[in-house]
Amino acid sequence: MNELINLTKRNIKVFLRDKVSVFFSFLSVIILLALYFLFIGKQYVSGSEFDGLSSNLKNYLGISIIMGGVLVINTLSLSLGVNGVIVNDIETRKLDGFMVSPVKRYKVILAYFISSIIVTAVLTLIMWFLTILYVFITTKYLYSFKTILNACLLLILFTFISSSIMIFIVTLVKSQNAFGTIAGILGTVVGFISGIYMPLFILGSGVSKVSSLVPFTHMTILLKQVILSDPYSKLAPEFVSALHKPYGTENIGILGFELSMTLIIIFCIILSMILLVLSYFNLNKKMVK
């Protein structure tokens, strides 16, 4: 047990000491926030139908939409950044040192995964609490305890899913250059295909079907449904029903087939567990070499 704890601490320290890596882990989030606040965000609360709403309520809606996507991207980019330690250990041959130590290999691999979950969950939850504080200061609205708690639980679950997917991707990478390329484009690609940068209905039914196969799409939809539940409660029901599609809070199922969000999330968890097992075999092969 002590070996697992020490390895986990070591991975966390290695990541946090690399300030450049930490910065680039947040880069896609920073870009997304800049795009929302400068351009995209205003489009969500513009139009004559919003004229009767106060500026505070408009901002409440806008920020809730923004953060529903940002927090999901955060779980992706941070977990990818933390798992970059694996690539560094492989390239610098530090992983070879574990081969001659008495530490069991599954503990080495499990430590990478646990460190990814800890760092990603903590930093993402901090961002969520800063969002709550920012919303209260700028709009005087406060999310309900139920919404705050549900969002926290979802973010922890999403961290598990994202870390599983990212560690699998990283175990397929052989060099820092390849890792840097993936880290540079993955957040942007997922942002578009998951309906974070713009609503899926704008991209057409074909893209929506492809997007329905991506776990991050459903993670974004579910988190938006939770975070927007409070702002929606301030609006008339018929107004809210018209916002589901443009705001990305409408369930899209998988490949056009209607499935409950609960079932979809269960599928995502099962996929995560499968990818974890595959990650173990991938990394074990590298350790054998």
Global geometry? elongated
* Estimated helix fraction: over 70%
Total strands = 0
Into which percentage range does the β-strand content fall? under 5%
Q: Which structural category do the helix and sheet elements fall into?
A: mainly alpha
Major sheet summary line: none
Order of helices and strands: HHHHHHHHHHHHH
| Number of discrete domains | 1
For the termini, the CA-CA separation is 26 Å
Task: Let me know the average pLDDT.
Answer: 85
What's the number of helices? 13
Tell me the Rg in angstroms: 20 Å
State the low-pLDDT regions, or none.
Answer: none
What report would you give on this structure?
It is a single chain. The mean pLDDT is 85. The longest helix has 37 residues. The protein is 80% helix and 0% strand. The protein contains 13 helices and no strands. With 289 residues, it is mainly alpha-helical. It has one domain. Helix 1 crosses helix 3 and helix 2 runs parallel beside helix 7.
What's a concise summary of this model?
The protein is mainly alpha-helical. Helices cover 80% and strands 0% of the residues.
Helix-strand layout with pairing:
Elements: H1 2-17, H2 19-44, H3 55-91, H4 94-99, H5 105-139, H6 145-171, H7 176-193, H8 200-203, H9 205-211, H10 215-227, H11 229-232, H12 237-247, H13 261-288
Quick tags:
289 residues, 13 helices
